[in-house]
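Feature request disguised as a bug report, sorry. It would help if multi-protein outputs had a clear separator. Right now it looks like this:
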Amino acid sequence: MTLGTVIRSFAAPAATPSGLEWGGKGLWGMDTGTDLIYWVSVITGVADARFATPDTLSTGIAWDGTTLWVAGVTNGMISQIDPITGTIKKQLASPYAGPQGLAWDGTMLWHAGTGPNRIRQLDPITGAVKRDFASPGIQPRGLCWDGRSLWAVDRSTALLYKISPISGTIEQSVATPSSVPVGIAWDGRSIWLSDNNTNLIYQIAVN
């Protein structure tokens, strides 16, 4: 299948989906209307509400293999969360006025946001910016890491971008299946995308 082909789709956990992340056997999803973090089965599409988000407007979510990281617009923080209890273990200040997507590359966090419209690599211990480049569009949203490259979606362009983590160069781009992409996740073979217009989660082919 070619890049951007929709493999399948199902309903998001609630009406206003935001961040999305792969958790190894399913998806972590968030919703800004319910302020909940869900575990979503990719087999059935059934969602289980696990715990409250650490902020009333939580956007990006990342999984480091042990804990979750969640970015919040209202409190301007990136919270490290115990995935069993929802307890906040640590918080870092986001470098953006409008924090958005998060991704974990194995050692570092990647973070997209507005004010300014940038994508930045952050030290998860100190929050220090290690790498910084312009986002492909003016409304960056979800981020994910495929092991070598970053993927990002932008609300203003409704495009999915593959990006070099070294230079910030756009390597590939393709239209998303609907108009308001908000969260993306990489499962090892394909990308999952949540959309705030259709309120669907899509599985998308990358080659």
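(second protein starts here, but nothing in the output says so)
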Amino acid sequence: MLGEILTIAAALCWALGASLYKKSLLNVRPVTLNLFRSFPATLFAFLVLYLLGKWALLSELTLVSLAHIGIASLLVLAVGDILYFSGLKFVGVAKTVPIAYSYSIFVAVISIIFLEESLTAPILVGTVAVVSGIWLATSRTENKVGKKEHSKLGILAALGTSLCWACGVSIFKTILANTDPFILASVRMLFLLPVLGVFMLFPFGKKSSNKNLTRFDILTMFLSGLMAIGVGDTLYLFGLEIIKANVAAPLASTTPLFAAIIAILLLKEEVSKRVLVGTFFVTVGIMFLTLEQMFL
């Protein structure tokens, strides 16, 4: 029971993180948010690593493992998350989160093509549910200020996030065969920080966007990283140690539902019935894609 509680708590942390990201993006660029949220997450990851007594395992990493960690980390935490933040900025939490968290469908496709896994009935049902949910959540998207191109960009960004996360997670699966998950959780941040620092040198968007940061902006960015990457990922990993992965994964897939509820209650986003039904379909679809492993 403890493992299930920890995993659901992780999903809640990720949903809360998405809501904090949305608030931060009112005044900062996606690259800026990604950099600022990474500092507390990195400190938290290495602190947990130290407290668990796994510091010595860092010396066991090979150059090949480091290369794989670097590629996967940049796909997930740099490219994927920056696209994720762009989606949040343009179309909001309730639309971006269910699309981004549909990355399991891409993982399923990758596993079928490259790992030659069979297409089972649960995978087929889950795929149909996810695709239907995305269509419901994103069709007839409108923007209050009349910038329809922003809606299209936001949806494309969310889909790009899903693809990047899927590719990165697939590589992570290979890495975890020989690497401790807590080592992976901390080392991946070391690849992210310098790359984001370089990105900050380029003037994406308004040049003055980083000069007007308030204490509230900085605090929100720090809290979002600590909540989502730090606490959320750690709770999920602890949960995985207690319960099976094929039980933890569908529980973690409740993130879109938590995000939709938070978007309505805290962010006061206008969420239509189509978005709510779409979010439900996406969540059910993801659960089908993961739960089918329980019956093999």
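Even a blank line would do. Unrelated, but nice: The two ends are 23 Å apart (CA to CA).
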